Amino acid sequence: SYRPGARFGGNAIREASCAGLYGRSRRDASPFARAQVADAGDTAANPFNINEAVETIEAAADDLLGTGARLMTLGG
Questions:
Q1: Of 39, 52, 61, 68, which shows the fewest CB atoms inside 10 Å?
Q2: 47 DSSP 8-state letter
Q3: How far is CA 25 from the centre of its chain?
């Protein structure tokens, strides 16, 4: 559906985080000077089958962790 809520969580987080990409934040922090950061994008999960969705998300996380990356997940 096109209802607001968790469906738009990922894009809302991306939009809010873009404010800190260029220049310094109000706290004079530069997180990108200390770490290499990448957005791995959305993981397409079945919203009608929670068990399948969890398996899909875990598999995507395992793929990323297998590269040696550290993982931080955010979402709605």
A1: 68
A2: T
A3: 20
- Encoded tokens for 23: 């220049």
* Cα gap 56→76, rounded to integer Å: 16
**pLDDT band (50, 70, 90) for residue 67:** very high
Token code pair at residue 56: 């899909």
CA 22: distance to chain centroid? Answer: 19
Q: Is pLDDT at 24 greater than 80 in this prediction? A: no
Q: Which residue has the higher pLDDT, 38 or 19?
A: 38
Q: How far apart are CA 7 and CA 14, in angstroms?
A: 13
